[in-house]
Every structure is written in C-alpha cells, then in structure tokens.
C-alpha cells in the first residue's frame, strides 16, 4: 500500500485491484469504436483481387481494434480524424433520408445537451456536498433540538431573536456542553466541547480515509494533476468512473467536515469531470472517441472551476448576493499602496515556492518510507493534531471559507467582530459624519492580531502535511486563507501606521479619512498566495473577480499576482499540480515549458547506438509465425512496416494491440491461416509466393499508412513542438528516406528529465 | 486603380508603388537575420575537409538568406526554432560574463518593456484621435467664440449655466446660422446650418480619401482582415509601416468627423498594430524574427480591441465612470423576457448574414466595374447622400457612439430626452414613491419611435455601401447602432404591451411596477447585431461587459448572441472579416473551419498526373549551370533535394531565394566557382568528381535538413490540421520513402475552394 493515491494498479493489498475492475471507467466503453481513418481511406483504393471469403478488417472492424491499453497515451490526430470520418458519414447519409437528417441534427446538438446535463448534475452534487458539509461541520459543535438534521443556521431560522448575533445563540441549538453539563461557560463545559469536537473530527476523517481505501483509491487528493494528464491524452481506467464519483462525493463531505486544512474546490473539479465522463456514455459521438471525450471533459473542467465558486452563491437561505465573498469597500486605493501590494506578492511567491518544495519533499517521504504503509493512521494523527491546535483559536476553528469571508470584510460601524475592535473615534479633526474614518486599534483588535498570527503559522505548517493524504483534499481555500491572514495583518499594520503618522502619508491620507482598507489587503494577499502555489495569473485575477465582484481592483490584484509568479518562478518553474504530476511520473508534456537544448532527433530516438536494431516488420516477406515471435520478444506498443529489410523504406506503422487481436482472430475464424501463412500489408499478392502456399493473412486494414516522420536532423525543439501541438504518441525518424528509429512521448519526457538533471527513470508510464 | 485597398502593389497609377518603397514596413529590417536553425545544427557535425578559403554560409550568413519575399508566407516552425537558437546562445553566453548576463536579463524583459511602450503610444494616439474627432465633428455645427480650437463641450465648460441642458446652449458657442444670419430658428438658419454641415462633411471626406490615395493606400478600410492574414504568417511590406500609421491616424479623424456611417474601433486596431510593429524595431529579439514579431502584434491586437473602448473612458473632463456606455437599470429581467431577447438574436443574425452578403456583393461590384476607378468621387457621393439624409433626423445626425449611449440609457425622472417622453404617471394604483413605474407613451416618445425607425432603415442601407470605401472605416459602432435601435424599438413595444395588458403578464408585471427596461433591450440588440456581423460570441459578451459594466445581464446577452450566431451561420459560416479575406484572395487558413472531405494528400499535391515531373535538385550530381537553368525555368519558391534522380529519396529542401543569393554570391566572391562547378549539398566530396574539375560550390549550409513530410495516403483533414497547428509553408509528400510531390498552403486553400464549389483561382498570393 505504498502510494495508492498515485494510480498504481498493482496494489499490494489487492483491494484496489479488485475494485479496479468494478469502477466503471473512462475507457471501458470504447471497445466498439470503428477502425482508423487511414484504414477507411484505403478501402476506397483497394482493388478487387481479394477473395471475398477473407474477413476484411476494414469493412467489419474487429472488437478492440483501434482502442488503447490502460496507462497508455492516445493518438490525438488519429482520434480526431476518426471523428471527422464519423461526421462525414452522418452528413452524407443525412442527404438521403429524413430519419438520417434528424439523427444528424441530434448529433450536432448532443454537445450542447451533454454540457447542460453535466451542468445540472454537477450543480446538484455540489449543492448536496455544500449542505451536507455545513451540517456535519456544525455537528462538531452541537445539535439542534428541533431535529438533529438541522444545521446551526437552519435550526435558528425560526427563532424570534432579531439581531444576527442573538439569533446565533438561539435556544433550540445546544452545544454539546449544554446538553451534557447543562452549562456553556467554565472550564468543564469547554473541555466537553473540545472533546466532542475531537471525537467527531476523528470519526469523520476515519470514515473518509477508510471509504477511500476500501472502495475507490482514485478518490483521494484533489485529482487535478491526474485530470490534467488525462486531458493531455493519457488513459487511466476508472479514474473518472462512477465508483470514484460516489466515494469522492461522500468522503469529500467527511474530509471537509473533519476540520482538516483542506478545501473542496479542487475535488469538485474531479467530481465534475466524473459526471461529464459518465454522461458521455449516453452519446455515441463522445462514447466512441477519446479525443471528443477529452474536449468535453476539458470544458467541464473549466466550467467546474468557476461553478465550484458561483454555485454556492445560489444560497437557498435567502442571501441574494451573486458572489461568494462579496466585498464593497468604502475607499478607493491609492498608488502608494502598490508598495505593500507588491510586498504581499513577494510573500505569496515565497510561500508558494516554499509550500511546493516542502509538500513534495513530504510526499516523497511518504512514498519511500514506512509512512506510506499506514494511510489511516496518518490521517487520524494529522486530524488529531489539527483539531487539538485549531479548537482553542477561533480563527482556526471556523472553516476556511468563513475565515476568508471574515478577513475580506470591511469594518462597518455595526460590526461586532473582534477584527473591528477599534477604539471609538474621538473626532479630533472636528469633522462630522465620517465616523468610519481612521481609528486607533483597540484591545479587541490586538487580541485578533495575535490570534491571526498564530493561525497563519498553524495553517502554513499543517497544510504542507495535509495535502497529499489519502482523503479528497483541495488547495484553493487553504492557500487563500494563508494569504488573506497575511494580507489582513499587513493591512491593519498600514492602517495604524497611517493613523499615527499622518504626516508620512502627506497629500492623500488626511486625519479622519478612511484611506486604508485592510479587507482589500486580505483579498490581494489571498490572490498572491493562490498565484504562488498554482502559478496562474490572468485566470486567477478573473477568478478573484468572480469571487468578490470587485472590478475596480484589477491593478492591485494584477500587481500582486504577477510579482508572486515572478518570485515563485525564481525558485522553480513548476506549480503544485505540475510538481505532483512529475512526482507520480505521469507522461505529461507541459504546454508552456520551452525546450531549450540543441539536441537533434537522432540523439533522442531509439535504438541508441549500443542497442539492438529496431524491430520492424516487412510488408510482404514475413510469415505469421515470424511476426508472432517478433511481437512476443519485445514489449513495444507498435512496429514500423518497411518495404524490405534491405531498403528500410517506410510503408506504415501498426499497433501491437491491433496486430495481436487481428492475428488471433484470423487463426480462429479464417480458414487456412496457419503459422506459415504470409502476412501481407500490401494490396497485391507478391509474385514470389508459391501458388501452393497457405492463404496469406491480409492486414493492410490495420496498417496506419500515414505515420508521422521527422528526419534525423530535425532539432528536438521542433520535434517537441510537433508532439505537443498535434498530440502525437510516437514519431518515426528517417534519414534520406530510410527508417532509422522511433521517438515516443516517453522518450521525449525522459530526454527532458535528463537535460534538467533529473532521473529519466522517473517517467513511469507510456 | 482597381482595388488599391486590396493590397495590389502593381497599381496602375504608380502612386502607390512609388510610396510602396517609402512606407517603412514590416519586413524591411529582417535582412540581417541569422541562418536557419537546421543549418546551425549541422555546423557542429561538419567535418574538417572543407578548404578554409571557401565561404561557409553557416558561420557567416549572407545578407538576405533566411528572409522572405513580399506577399509570401513565413515558416513558423523555422522562425520559432531560430528564436530558440538565439535564446540558447544568449543563455550560454550569460554564464561567462556579467555583461552578457545583463544583456540576457534585458532580453528577457524586452517583451514587457515593448508592450508597455506599445500601450503608451497607442493610448496617446487613440486619445489624440478622440479629441480631434470631437472637435471636427462639432465644427460641422458651429464654432466657439472663445477660440475655434474648442469643441462644443469644452467651449461651454466655463459657462455659468447650471443644468446640463442649458449648459449645452451656452452663449459662447455659436451655430453657423447664428454667426451668419444672427438667428437660430426658422427655415433660413436651418438651411444655413444644413449647408455648412454638408460643406464640412464633404471637405473632411475629400481630404481623407485624397490623403489615403496619395500617401498610404494601405490605410483604408478597417485593416482587420489584412492583420488577421499577417498574423497568420503572411508578408505584406509596408502594411504596418510608419506612413500607414501617420496617414491612417489623420484620415481616421477626418472620416469619423465627416459623419459617414463608420466607427473608429477597427482602424484603431490597425493603428495599434502599426505602433507595435514600429516599436519592434527597437528590440533585436523582435526585429529579426517574424514569428516573435507576430506574437507581439497578436497581443497588441487583443489589447487594442479592449483599449479602443476603455481608453476613451479615461475621460479628461471629469466623468469618473470606468466604462463607455455605463448602464444602471432599475429592474432585473424576467425569464419571460428571454423570448424577445431571442427575437433580437434572430434579427441580429439575419441582419448580419444579409449585411455580409450585400456588402461583399457591393465590394465585388467595386472591384469588377468602373466604380472602382473613381474612389474619390465614390466617397464624395456617399458622404453627400449620408449628410443629406442624416441631418434632418436627430438620431442620425448625432455620432454613432452618442446614439448608442442614448439608446442604452434608462429613463429617469429628470430625463429630458425625447425617448423618455412618457405621459406623467397618474398613480392609478395608489402606490406612492415609485413614479418610475410603467407609463403610457406620450407624443414625444411616438415622434422618437418614428425617427428611430427611419434611422434604422437609413443605417442599415448606408453601412452596406460605406464599409469598404477608400477611407479608414470600422464596423463595430454602426453594427451596434443598428442593433441598439432595433432593440430599443422592441423594448418600448414590450413596455407598452405590458402597460396596456397587465393581465397578459400575470404574476410578474403588476400595474405600476417598472418591469421592462427598454435600455436593456437596446444593449441586447447591439450585442446580437455585432455578433451576427463578426460571429464572435463569448468574446463579444466580454466586450459588452467592458462597455457597460453590467455583470447581471450575462444570460440575456448570451442567449441573444448565441441565437444570432446560429441564425447567421445558417446562411453562411463566414464573418465579415473572413468574407473580406476571401474576397481579396489572401492565403488565410481559417483556424476553426473543419475540413470535411475525404481527400488524401495525393489528391492535392503537385505535380498532378498530367503535370510535368516535380523539379528537384540532386545532392551532388548537378552543376551550377544546371541548377540555374532549373531555377530559372520555374517559378517555385523552393526545391526538394534528393539523393539521386533514380532513387528519389529525400535529403532536404532549399528555398529559391537562398539558392539564388548563395550562387550569386559565390560567383562574385568565391574563387574558381564557374558554371561547370558541382553544387554539393553533402558534407563530403563525391568520388565520381574528377580531380581536375573546378572547385565545387558547397551549399549544405542553406539546405533545410528537416523538411516536413507526409505520406501520400495521409488524409487531407490531418494534413490541414498539421499546416494549421504548426504554421507550415509547404510539406513534401512521400510514398514508401520516395519523394512524390509537394503541397503548399496555397494548394490547400485552392483545394478547399474547389471543394466548396468556389473558384480555386481566387487565391491570389503564396
């Protein structure tokens, strides 16, 4: 059970590999897909010399031909071409009958319908998670006498108390201490509340990790690194299946409620992609094509990132705001404030870089030491530490979203929060009206600052060991919380500096004016930290608009996130998701990473100089037995086909899986095909074959007649560009028209690892 | 002088071809660029057998090698690879000295610096255009007594009148009638104003068209079709040069002021791209690389589209709104209203499709008949018609932006606009306070509706013949104006329908409530029409947010623009810019257009079956004379190099321009190279050459050793995809390792034209 979160299907416990077949997955339904387009294209040019009794794979594709093995990379060009063939066929048919025309129209609209269904399903699940998490979180504090299924807010809904503060303490809601000891103050009730909090936290986290372990190992983590890899064309069966969806939904609620330092936005993206993938099964257009499916997933991925935040805003309890953390600040920002904003950017960048390094080091440790063998104990210990340290401090006891919301808020006159514990304005300037002008910090605020400083330290440390545990866990909320705390601290500091030294801020911050808004600093800090961890910039600023509705703060947000990105990039180019992708060895070709070395294709291709010669098939001179021997003696996923061993002129490329399925099928069903039969990749029967020879096996149908080639002199930067832009799986290397070798995506990733002095063997999958 | 706006440098008047050399252009500075990367890559593997006295094109690239001819397509892969080589070299050098390190850092930041400079320069020019256009527009109506250089608003700035309406008629500002006749009412003053309006309009448009004609023919039109083509990799010398910039800036002001139905947003994009291109000259990173330059232009293109609207909002006269057409509606929209919104979408789509068809038909007429020979007369006649018809109607007399702004506005109680000429509320419902509730239309509103209907008809017709004339002209504002008028008309209609039939709208629109906002309808209509013409959807909705700041109207805007796109697409897939690109025959490969035919590469490649064989060079058996004869007997831009005529195995590709420059240079400067010298594309000297033969000409340095190849069986959809994604110029076609033919971008465009039953000869350039 070393790192079952890292997609190792050969799991020692056997549990996950049993479930592996249970979890209905991404690729299970593609077995009936049609043959490759090259094959289809050839069929029109094939001459009529083929005896009709031979099974022609072109007209009647064998099941399995054209599909992929688990943990392999798809060929985008091929898949897209396949979809265009399908589309062409539908369009052609639609000219002949009304029924076919209707089918063609429904096919065209199926993408819209699918996205609608995905939106509805994801929205419903996200809403359910939200309500359930609220209820369980409140359960840690107490219970509603009207019915245990009410959360705190809901329980007090019908209460007669008028102000929000009083309503918060309505008689129907009882804390555990009130229920057990009958009192809510004093050390003993506090102890009871503390213990009940710990009890529920440990129970929730135990349930979460056990469910993940027992039913869906793929449900852990945020899922974003794996989804990025899947979207780039990798196959992970079951990762987006229905079991993952069910277990992830349940355990996400439990993990969030347990009080661990994690968010639910990242896992919701995984949930949305599961929904999209499952709903894809309803439409043949998406069921049968890996590339089209991924396009849909990609849209869901984006939609979910936005929906994860905005859906929660459709608050069923009457709050009509359209955004999650609604901000409305009294004062505009001043150009001088760019300095502290950039300072927050530097903090965010430093923390992002540090967090990634520390988290990856910790995850490596988990993979390589005995720590990884006891995921349940690990989760319980971390939950216990989190609970013990978080309970006494009100800023860590509340949920991450609540904390951020409070830190973003501007202080109004009515605000009773500790953060607004300013001294009453003394009106020294004689001005009337603007009692929201600058004020000296009071005792309440000083206490709040201390608690916030402790909360900052705590959040920074605990998030490092939390992210990567075997429970669903997102990073958005914890990262933003760290930044928001730092920002609020700096904001209050600036505010007090301005209050006591008005002469320093000559010209724009006169006494009595409300010129510095600590809530804005919290917002900027949150964006900076999120930027440092994920390395998003523009999209992040857009997300912050979505969150806060504050369109006027584009410059502060941009300044902080750009600074944060630059600072963090100085310590390492990778964001947290890329770092986890590399840690797990997925074959992911980062779209932005520049390939900056002067290698040529000949330096990267296999076979190397010391290797045995490339395993190739010839187009007409090999027998079935020879082909079988060659295939079995190697582990390659495909084989180039050449005119003859002497000329090495390239004809095409055939996939191992297609080859084995076709030979197996021919031996079973096709009369006369024996080991001595010739395998023909040509249209015609060669003259050299004796007339009394057994009937040949014709395999031109499964031959890809348009394999990608580059010359041996092609610079690797161009080759990498081609792989990236076209989504290739492999590419053949020629010299003066003769086949020299082959480059696969894995070869490229290994070469890139080598060039940046990393272990090339860290790339695990094909 | 047939269509000098369509980039024909062989212009009969001779004026433009003289200026053609004057206009400092996009490509003039790239002559000193380094050799291709393939050549650089080869240099390391060349052995030492080459006599040192030979000029090696690798170490010392000849001027001109690696550059492009005018009206040709660049090779993106090559250009990007070149930039990576340059970057690698700088990085390597930076390890050795501090100076080089500083250079490397400044190189890395030059992109940011460049964008900053482009932003500043474009902003300054846009601001200048705005101020000048305001002034000249007001000049048509009257003059300021304080000084003729004040516009109307500026002139009345210091006036003592308090309300805006009165201030609008301050004593310092005199209409022409007041100046000449001493009175402002009555038929004679009206006639004087009318005539002065016509006089200025004709003067401005005459100046505009004459300046364009005399100094910068490329300054006409919106420029967006050409810029799209340039960004995709086409070379048009001078299109983004300083003369185009200067003349376009001046004539844009004149054209806008003349009252023609055109906007300035599109031409501002051209201006921004000119600024970016000219500023590129300051940085060698961008000066020497066509691909990097286009990346920068692309960013400016986007930035300008947004800046064109938002820059104007930095109003120097104290209006603090951040958006151009600020909207703040009183009432939210209701689900039932989606029906009229979708109706507006249908109108927008129909109008968009109709406009494109009519405008293209008119432009074709201009190109093919004598109409195109008299651009100045055409502009004067259209200006005269526009002026005569526009002056009497206040909605056509005001500028497009003013009209849109008025139509978007909601009626408040104080509004004195005719559009708000409702009857006073009678308070039948007895409710107090909401006097903005629904009201019956009064006389003022009925007059306004009539005028708007006439304005709609007028705008729809005049825009068709205006867009494409030989003056700078944009489409955004006229399109939006048409949609806004239609929307406002429908909005008022809905409002009155609700007022008189409250029972029809049971449940959501009770009597006295303000439930329908005509301004919102105008906004939705504007988006729908802009969508129908340009076929943008999501980006358009984003632009509408930018324009109006109305985040709550995402659903109405989305519904209308999607409907508009669907309806318009049913009549033809092309937007107005793509239609103009095709009209002018530019080699532009539409990134979204699906290639839906089952052709193979062999069907598209040259030579065709009936053609003479492909002109190829051999790697070592041809003499300088033979090469020269071959090159001169053809007009191809490049030649494949093969091992021998018999084997036809491909070695590389050499560009005609590089070949001619190198041979020419060798004959002049290299001792002993004569007509009988062998041209060698190999590293070694072949054994067959006699020792007493003249010294060979070695040209491996200019040989591209990694030409792109596809097999003859490659489906064309895949080939098109490769061209599009990699930005190829040409691709060689092989069969079983032997060279068969070549496919260029032009061949693909011709094939696509043929497939959709268009004239393949309409593709004019390479």
TrEMBL record, chains A, B:
One of its GO terms (cellular component) is Golgi apparatus. Its main location: membrane. Coiled coil: none annotated. Gene3D superfamilies: 3.90.1280.20, Clc chloride channel. InterPro entries: CBS_dom, CBS_dom_sf, Cl-channel_core, ClC. PANTHER family: CHLORIDE CHANNEL PROTEIN (PTHR45711), H(+)_CL(-) EXCHANGE TRANSPORTER 5 (PTHR45711:SF7). This is Chloride channel protein. It comes from Gouania willdenowi. The gene is LOC114480343.
